[in-house]
Write a structure and sequence with these properties.
The protein is α/β, with parallel strands linked by helices and 724 residues long. It contains 18 helices and 40 strands. 21% of the residues lie in helices and 26% in strands. Strand 5, helix 4 and strand 6 form a beta-alpha-beta unit.
């Protein structure tokens, strides 16, 4: 364990005192006995955003980046006699810098990961392990952690010893918890040593999300049960106060084993004084938690426990101010106050702090190498690729991903028992605004494509997987993802937002290869997790068709997806036995290869899904980026209403055409030719699309034309289309 590094506080001595941010304790009532005012600071979900730079847009940003958060850290320390600093995790993955260090120029033993080059400057007291720390495997994680000048804690990940005896289980990480001796100064100027217990947790779902890296090596246990077992031990070992750092969000749904978002129930575990949480990329305290049982927004407590969740990517710093009083030799928390400090004023669109030059300098080499990497050419697109309307209609940012996945899985199935089964492909919009703000959309103009554009399309380091499902199971998958929308009342005269902000957009899977409509006047069939039927009699998915005919519930399909969905979703893998392809290649690489093979792509969406016209004249509203205005003008389904207080452009959704109940079947593809025909390849074509048009298998076209590389066809090339 590293030595006490209070000397780092000296770095902040030159920072001017901010009179607008006087700690809460300045007005605290006098207490009998020694009183110590202790400030606890938290960063979380930095996701490798060390520099305030948007690698996807290839330009600096004022909205996030640890270089900006570092300035807040210095300011907050300068205001307090005593302070501690912790990080909650999800640190080494999340943007092209993280990918560069893990995949392009892999970190070697003895080298220091750039995230620690930056964070080591600030004397963190401890860090916690987040779920994304496992994305690159345990070996890479160990190599990365070796560069941290501060200790890590995790209590609920254990070595997989292969037996059912929990009494002999060993923690995987060296420190399940720590008791830190920290020298503090009380209000009278006297010094004391306080023992600060620190314990960390990660969602047990890592066993599904990163199954390929973790299976047979570790097991993850329930957060609450682990805390109930270990917090009393921490107190027995002398912890005066206990700081819990769960990489876990907040839910008040009934408690279940292995909850992903367990913070609320963690606050009920006796002995915990402070909770520093994260994972959900939200803010706490925040008005969105108003009227939630057990929440005191003014003080920032959950069931009386001081708690903070400071956003994501370094856009906020969590500040927890504690008043500790010693009574009969024991320290207790007699008062507390929590606040979040932001680096950017979204309303005024102005930066609130400057970047810390020491952080920028520390990661300069890796930062510039990453910029050079993401500027590398891939191909060209003949049409813009945007995600402005990905939650409203079929979208090009998803289309290119699903096309690439289909091409990849077609090759992977050659020579297997699954060759010849119809292939569908599932993709979701990763950048669709939401809590990340009105600038969080994909917007790639027609023209050259670089790696940064592909990384913009596919943010995560997932790998290509495929599952087999029946037609009925495909429908249930779509029913779950249709939970993206709120339930619209067609009889209401009030404005009704279309999109449910609580439903993660990365769970809104569009499945290409079938056509369907979504009737949002029906309540969602499943809960947000997809595990429980919320409304068993409800069906939002209507007119589900394959090849122009109602889908056969018994027909088998192969669905291309990613390891995250295939391993963790009950709808994509109903019995846990449906994975038929576990590819080593990332989905992002599949997209890169697809673009390179085709040279020029046309990513225009094929319109395989739409909203059913069932809400009539109801005032249904949809928000997107103001940058979408030029595209919205050409859409007869949208009427501009104005700009919202948080900077979004608001539109009214106006549908036309037949209702879902009266909808005619989607026209079938061109009939199977009775005789061979010729086809001239157009920009953006691939064998899959051409084969679907003529109702033949792409392998037939490849064989008939003796294509050595079925993925390499080019505009104006003449192909012979064989009979079926």
């Amino acid at each position: 364990m590293r030595k006490n590094t209070w000397k780092q506080g000296v770095l902040a001595a030159t920072v001017a005192f901010n009179v607008m941010a006087v700690p809460v304790w300045a007005s605290a009532a006098e207490e009998t006995g020694p009183v110590v005012k202790l400030r606890v600071l938290e960063t979380t979900d930095l996701h490798t955003n060390m520099v305030n730079y948007d690698y996807f847009a290839d330009k600096p940003t004022d909205e996030y980046g640890f270089a900006k958060t570092a300035t807040l850290i210095k300011q907050a320390r300068a205001e307090a006699k005593n302070s501690l600093l912790f990080d909650n995790g999800d640190l080494i993955q999340g943007n092209p810098l993280g990918d560069y260090v893990a995949k392009v120029d892999p970190l070697q033993q003895g080298e220091t990961h750039p995230v620690y080059k930056a964070m080591n400057l600030f004397g963190y007291d401890a860090g916690n392990i987040g779920n994304h720390e496992f994305n690159f495997g345990l070996d890479f994680l160990a190599t990365s952690l070796a560069g941290a000048d501060f200790p890590y804690v995790n209590a609920n990940v254990y070595v997989d010893d292969g037996d059912a005896d929990e009494s002999n289980d060993r923690h995987y990480f060296e420190h399940p918890y720590l008791i830190l001796d920290r020298e503090v100064v009380d209000e009278a100027g006297n010094k004391h040593t306080i023992k600060v217990g620190v314990i960390g947790f990660v969602p047990p779902q890592i066993m599904a999300w990163d199954k390929a890296h973790l299976e047979g090596k570790v097991v993850a246990k329930d957060i609450i049960k682990t805390a109930e077992a270990l917090v009393p031990k921490m107190k027995e070992e002398g912890a005066d106060i206990v700081v819990a750092i769960p990489h876990s969000g907040f839910e008040t749904v009934p408690q279940t084993d292995n909850m992903e978002n367990a913070t609320y129930y963690l606050s009920e575990v006796p002995g915990i004084d402070v909770i520093l949480f994260g994972h959900a990329h939200k803010n706490f305290p925040d008005p969105s938690f108003a009227n939630t049982p057990g929440i005191d927004l003014e003080k920032g407590t959950i069931n009386g426990v001081a708690a903070a969740m400071p956003g994501f990517w370094g856009n906020h710093l969590g500040v927890v101010d504690l008043v500790l009083t010693q009574v009969d030799g024991e320290w207790t928390v007699s008062d507390s106050k929590v606040e979040l400090r932001e680096i950017y004023d979204a309303t005024a669109k102005t930066a609130l702090v400057e970047a810390d030059p020491a952080v920028v300098e520390a990661v300069e080499a890796e930062h510039h190498a990453t910029i050079e990497y993401v500027r590398g050419p891939v191909g060209e697109t003949s049409a813009p690729i945007t995600s402005f309307f990905a939650l409203l209609q079929d979208d090009p940012s998803i289309q290119i991903v699903t096309d690439a996945q289909t091409a990849y899985i077609e090759k992977a199935l050659q020579g297997t028992d699954y060759e010849g089964l119809p292939i569908l492909s599932a993709g979701a919009p990763f950048k669709a605004g939401g809590r990340q703000g009105p600038n969080y959309y994909t917007n790639i103009p027609a023209g050259p494509l670089a790696i940064k554009n592909v990384a913009d399309l596919y943010l995560y380091s997932n790998t290509v997987h495929a599952v087999w499902l029946t037609g009925a199971e495909v429908k249930e998958w779509l029913e779950w993802t249709a939970g993206q929308f709120l339930t619209i009342d067609p009889a209401s005269a009030e404005a009704q937002p279309l999109v449910d902000p609580a439903f993660p957009t990365y769970n809104f899977d569009v499945i290409d290869g079938v056509t369907y409509e979504l009737d949002v006047t029906q309540p969602p069939r499943y809960d947000a997790s997809g595990k429980e039927l919320a409304n068993p009699d409800s069906h939002r998915v209507v007119n589900l068709q394959y090849n122009g005919k109602p889908i056969d519930p018994e027909q088998k399909f192969v669905v291309a997806t990613n390891n995250y969905r295939a391993s963790s979703s009950l709808r994509a893998n109903p019995d846990g036995q449906r994975i038929i392809v576990k590819a080593p290649d990332e989905n992002r690489q599949a997209v890169i290869d697809y673009i390179r093979d085709n040279g020029t792509i046309n990513p225009s969406a094929d319109g395989n899904w739409k909203l059913a016209n069932t809400f009539g004249s109801a005032k249904v509203t949809f928000t997107t980026s103001p940058a979408a205005a030029a595209f919205a003008k050409s859409m007869d389904t949208l009427q501009y209403l104005g700009e919202t207080a948080d900077g979004y452009a608001e539109y009214r959704v106006v549908l036309s055409g037949k209702s879902a109940q009266a909808a005619e079947p989607t026209p079938a593809p061109a009939p199977t030719p009775d005789a061979e025909q010729s086809y001239v390849v157009k920009p953006g074509d691939n064998l899959t699309k051409i084969a679907k048009t003529y109702g033949v298998a792409w392998q037939q076209i490849a064989n008939r034309n003796q294509l050595k590389n079925p993925n390499l066809i080019y505009p104006k090339q003449v192909l012979v289309i064989p009979t079926k």
